[in-house]
Every structure is written in structure tokens, then in C-alpha cells.
Amino acid sequence: MKRQSRFIFLIIAISIIFAGTNIFLFHRYIGMVAGDAEIINNLGTIRGSIQRFTKLELSYLESNHVIKRIDYLFETYKDLNTPFLNQIYETWEELKIVASKHRNSPDNHNRKLLIEVSEECWEIADKAILENQYIAENKVGYLILPIVFLVFEFFFGLLLIFIVKKYVYDNLENFAAYDNLTKAHNRRYFIEYLNKEISRAERKGTTFSLIMFDIDRFKHINDTYGHSTGDEVLKTLINIVQKDLRKSDVLSRIGGEEFTILLPDAKIKEAVFTAERARKTIENYTFKDVGKVTVSFGVTIYQDGDIIDDMLKRADTALYLAKNGGRNRTETV
């Protein structure tokens, strides 16, 4: 009896050790996934901000706030072993030099060089996002040791498998597909979805529309009321826009205050109607602490032979026309 009690105690002690070890390893894994998701999201922010910086430089507009934001992100992650981060940083430093030259001597050569270096920086950032996503997805291997331990604890094994399936695998895609702040889809998901829609349009002869929009004078909001208030404006804005969209429409945040709506099987008139409805709703809404906010929209439709860049450039051009036309309006290209 005494011997059996000792054996039972030993089994319980071993079970507790296995359970405690599994809890520790599991929480470490969740922390790694969340950390990877944060890195991926901030790499996307860097990529979008670089694009925004280039647009401002090409338009000879103030860009110091974008520079400070990008430099801050590089400073935050400089000590991490993040693939391609150093290459992005080196290209970013080169881009700032080229932008300065373009400011001082705005000729065609410097303008072309600015665009080329910006595209190079954007491509490296895109590679970094894909590489970090690949690394995050393959960290499932870190669960092998806990699973081996759980062979000795059937109950804990079932519990861990359930949690891994429901939490880790189901949410890993969400970490990488959604913007942390607004809960809209992020740029990576948007590009993938846009590519699928183009392929579907080519196969079936269907069409679809793309809306690009951003907040008018959003920098003024951040400068006047602070970034936390600016973040609340972004979240409220997305909630307003999302309410009037169809289930099939895909709302994404592709930059700081820049968003897109992809509308499958929608003609240009339907897309303009959607954009105008959202614009008017936002115009009539009173945002907390800020008051009235307006948004400019650019709309385009898929054309035969289009690739991703073609649609993005047309939508961006339409948005540019809306901004130049006085803001708080919708333009099409």
C-alpha cells in the first residue's frame, strides 16, 4: 500500500511537471506567434509608409512625419534578427538621400531615381513580409516537445490538441490577414484577393471594381488631437464604411490612412454609388473629439489584361484627382 501510494505520488508529480512544462511551452509559442504577427504587421506599415513618403516627395509635400514614423519602427526592431530588415533599412536610407536630391533638383533623372529606389525598397519589404510569414507558419515545429510530453498525460494531450487547433492554427491566418488597429484586412490579404479576382475575371469573363480612399487632412487630426485620437477616427471610419458593404466586398487597410474596397461582380456605377454613400455618411457623422471628417474616393474597374499594378495605379490616380479636385469627393479613372 505504501509502495502504491509512493508510485501514485510519483505519477502525479510527473504529471504535474509535464503539465507545467506544457503550459510554459505553449504560452511561449503563443507569444512567438503574436510577436511574429506584430513584426509582420509593422513591416507592412513600413512598406505602406515608404509608398506614402514617395507620393509626398513626388508631390513636394511635407513628409517629415512619415520619415519619423519609419525611423521609429526601424529603431524599435533593429536588434531583432528579422529577415531582410537590414536591407530595407539600407534602401530606406538611400531613398531619403535620393528624395533630398529630388527636392533640391527636381529634374526627370532624380524623379525617376526616386521612383526606382522606392520600388526597390517596397519589393524588399514585401519579401520580408513573405519570409516572416513563412517563418511564423513553420514554427508549429515548436509544439513537438509538448505533444511528446502529453503522450504521458492523455487528458492534457486532448486539451492541448483542442487549443492548438482552435487557437493557434485558426488564428495564425487572422494575425497575418487583418490589420491590428482597424480589424480591416491588411495589404497582404488584399493583394492576394485582388490577384484571385483578376484570375477569376480572366477565366469567366466577369468584372469587378476597386475603390481606394483615405481621410482628408489626416495629418492635421494627428497633429492637433494626438495619434490615439487619430487611431479612434480610423477605427470608427472603418465601422461606418463596413456597415453598408455587401458580404462579398473586401475592405482593407493598405497604408496609414489609405484603404481599399474590392467589389466582386460590381460595375463602375455600383462602385461609385457605394463610394458616394460611404462619403456622405462619413461627412454627416460627428467623430468623437474631432467633429467632422471628410474622405476622398478613387474608383476604377477591371479592364481586360489588367494586372495588380494597373488597377492600383488607376485607383490611386482617381484618388489623386479627388484630392486635387477639392477633397471630399469621388473620382473615377
Describe this structure in words.
The protein has 333 residues and is an alpha/beta fold. The protein has 2 domains: 2-177; 185-332, Reverse transcriptase/Diguanylate cyclase domain (Alpha-Beta Plaits), CATH 3.30.70. 69% of the residues lie in helices and 11% in strands. It is built from 11 helices and 8 strands. It has helices at 2-58, 64-77, 85-104, 108-137, 144-150, 154-177, 187-204, 218-225, 227-243, 268-284, 308-324; strands spanning 185-186, 208-215, 250-253, 258-264, 286-287, 291-292, 295-301, 330-332. The strands form 2 sheets. A 6-stranded mixed β-sheet has the order 1-3-4-2-7-8, with helices on both faces. The protein has a two-stranded antiparallel ribbon with strand order 5-6. α1 (2-58) packs parallel to α6 (154-177). The longest helix has 57 residues, at 2-58. The radius of gyration is 24 Å and the shape is globular. The mean pLDDT is 83.
Structural features:
alpha/beta; globular; 69% helix; 8 strands; Alpha-Beta Plaits; 333 residues
Concise description?
This protein has about 325 residues and is of the alpha/beta class. The chain has helices at about 1-60, 65-75, 85-105, 110-135, 145-150, 155-175, 185-205, 220-225, 225-245, 270-285, 310-325, and strands at about 185, 210-215, 250-255, 260-265, 285, 290, 295-300, 330.
